[in-house]
Amino acid sequence: MANDSNAHSERETFIAEQGETPDGPIPVSDSGRHANLRSRLMDQIRKLSRSTQFVMVAALILGLTMFFVGELVSERIERAAVQSAAEAGAHYMEAFLEPYVQEMSRDNILSPQSVGSLDRLMDSRSLKRHIVSIKIWRPDGTVVYSTDKSITNRKFPMEEIAHALKGNVVTDLEDLTQEENEFERNMNVPLYEIYAPLREISTGKIIAVGEFYEKADSLEQEIKRVRQQVWMVVGAATMAMLTLLFFLVRGGDKIIQRQQVALRMRLQEQNRLHDHNATLQHKMSTATQEFSRINELTLRRIGADLHDGPAQLLTLILIRLDDLAETCTAVDQETMETIRGAATDALREVRELSRGLALPEINNLSLQDELHLVAQRHEQRTGTKVKVTLGALPEDAPLPFKLCLYRFVQETLNNAYRHARGQGQAISADYMDGLLHISVKDSGPGMSADAMMVDTAGRTRLGLAGLRNRVESLGGLFSIDSSADGTAVNAQFKL
What we know:
Sensor_HK_TwoCompSys; single chain; kinase activity; Sig_transdc_His_kin_sub3_dim/P; five-stranded antiparallel sheet; five-stranded mixed sheet; alpha+beta; rod-shaped
């Protein structure tokens, strides 16, 4: 039983450990959930139209702006209304209180007669409708008269009367937190307190400060009504601006959407035309390469026909002339020699044409071997030297490019031999960033300006025009640099 319990305990431990493996559910932190919520919210916002997004942002910004404007205007209006009511009440109370405090300029205290007169004044029904409490302060902060008799002749902090002692009318709405305001707080009615300076009539000197508390029911109602009017105006202006902005942005959004649809259609059309042009270009490239191959086969056939036809016939003519020379007279011997020389020259030219038209087998040659081969054949045929400088060239290239390169170098070397007498013949080639650069140079006198110009028939020299057409037919670039120091014929291909 002990073994069974131990095994059971081990299984529970193993299962518990497996439950804690990374394969179990990984708790998501609060920051991760908030990030997911923000991501989903941003995705939902991006799906909305531009006009809706703009109105949302404008409503937020304009709403906050108008809120602060409304709060500022309401606060200013409330302050102005309270201050105006306070000044009016202060002037009203000064007219009642100043005659009773004149004696304070001498005795610094109110006589019992003045206190009784003030009590009777406070008992009047007309005054009680507005004023609920009165205090008269000495400049040292002592209350010399109060409706609440419990604080008479008590001294309190002077923060409240300090401004009034400077000649200002001070008011505060519902600020009854001071110790001397316990009587007014117990009334449980909205009040605002007013501090007004009381002056000596003869000199205008401030001899006391009168404080009275006026009911704020009507004032609060007026402030509330003004606030409502302000917020109605601000809200109406905000809604009007938002509506106007919405329709303006919505109109612009519709124009943008129409333009996007038009641009999308144009883009689709351009893509279709691009695909069509790519197809045509591929077909043209294939046709060009096939034409180059067929042209090369035709040249080989012509070369073979020249070798097997006219060359053999000229050889037979020379053999027959040798047979006839044995039986000719001395006069005819000279004629026979002339005919033999002409036939020999014709045979040599036919054989040179045949060798020029028939290319060697370059299918299995690399580009470097091919360029070395064409330079070697040119050296053998002309007895001149060709300098070959080759960089890192691709090992293989399509056959049409190989044929074009062979013909390009062969023709430019022939031109260099013909026009520059083979001076400074050089072949250079390099391959970089997918571009094959090849140049054939000589150090001859250079080409004249009119040699590269198009004549009146719209054609350049046949050899140069053939080279240019051959290079450009495979998508290459052809150029000639000629000066008094020599000529360089350049070609560039994308492999």
